TrEMBL record:
<dbReference type="GO" id="GO:0016491">
    <property type="term" value="F:oxidoreductase activity"/>
</dbReference>
<comment type="similarity">
    <text>Belongs to the short-chain dehydrogenases/reductases (SDR) family.</text>
</comment>
<dbReference type="InterPro" id="IPR020904">
    <property type="entry name" value="Sc_DH/Rdtase_CS"/>
</dbReference>
<dbReference type="Pfam" id="PF00106">
    <property type="entry name" value="adh_short"/>
</dbReference>
<keyword id="KW-0560">Oxidoreductase</keyword>
<protein>
    <submittedName>
        <fullName>SDR family oxidoreductase</fullName>
        <ecNumber>1.1.-.-</ecNumber>
    </submittedName>
</protein>
<dbReference type="InterPro" id="IPR036291">
    <property type="entry name" value="NAD(P)-bd_dom_sf"/>
</dbReference>
<dbReference type="InterPro" id="IPR002347">
    <property type="entry name" value="SDR_fam"/>
</dbReference>
């Protein structure tokens, strides 16, 4: 039986991935910060504690896998954050990178030796289309997802000779209720407040009409099952069209189109 780790498997994309993999007869090890508090577990999923902001927790989790051959790792756990760059608390940015990037990388390092020795394995990092199409007031979050994609894309060259695949799935707008849990840093008297509110309201509306977590889970499964894994899988938000536009249009034009779509003024230059 194929064994897969799915981080953040209690809700949203992680839960949908865990459910889909179980339906495909995977042995799924799902993670939660406190597995004992899960009120509605996915049937058949083996839940274990893991806090990606705590290296000691990651080591304990890895130690518990010593006798388990891990075939698949789906790095899904993460948090969202938004706010003007000027006003983002640096400790909040540090925590976001620890959870969305550094913890995920440390977990990859834990499973890679076994995958390399067995000459098989697949690592899927769940990113965001914001990594490819950054948006105002989402700088910290977009940066974490771009960093994770950078690790994945570069490491593909390193791991391929050992039969190990690593890739990134970039969802667009997803209807998972994430907007209600997104951490916001922008005070009512901020000089950025008007534009910040305009962008986040538009973003929230798009997410309410976004694709389902199950659609993203299907793309994750495709990435796992593809014989020749692609470097990037994008799903939702008219992904084929917008990636095509990015290839053929000048960056300044894409910037103007994005600003217009989110109600932002054109950039001005001091004279």
């Amino acid at each position: 039986m194929t064994t897969a780790i799915v981080t953040g498997a209690t809700s949203g994309i992680g839960r949908a991935v865990a459910e889909l993999l179980r339906s495909q007869q995977f042995h799924v090890i799902g993670t939660s910060r406190d597995a004992s508090s899960i009120s509605d577990p996915v049937p058949g999923v083996e839940y274990r504690d893991l806090d990606l902001t705590d290296s000691a927790s990651i080591r304990r989790f890895a130690d518990g896998l010593r006798d388990v051959d891990i075939d698949v790792l789906v790095n899904n756990a993460g948090e969202s954050q938004c706010g003007p760059l000027e006003e983002l608390p640096i400790n909040a940015v540090n925590r976001l990178f620890q959870l969305n990037v550094f913890g995920a990388i440390e977990l990859i390092q834990c499973v890679l030796p076994g995958m390399r020795e067995r000459r098989r394995g697949t690592i899927v990092n769940v990113g965001s289309m914001l990594a490819s199409f950054p948006l105002a007031y989402r700088s910290s979050y977009a940066a974490t997802k771009a960093a994770l994609n950078g690790f994945s894309t570069a490491a593909r060259y390193e791991l391929k000779p050992f039969g190990v695949d690593i890739t990134t799935v970039e969802p667009g707008s997803i209807d998972t209720g994430l907007s209600a849990r997104r951490t916001k840093y922008c005070g009512p008297h901020s000089p950025y407040h008007r534009d910040f509110s305009t962008v986040i309201e538009k973003l929230d509306a798009e997410e309410a009409q976004g694709i389902s977590a199950k659609a993203v889970a299907k793309t994750v499964l495709q990435a796992i099952e593809d014989e020749h894994t692609r470097p990037l899988y994008a799903v939702g938000s008219n992904a084929p069209l917008v990636f095509l536009a990015r290839r053929v249009l000048p960056r300044t034009m894409m910037e103007k189109l994005t600003a217009k779509a989110y109600g932002l003024p054109s950039r001005s230059h001091g004279g």
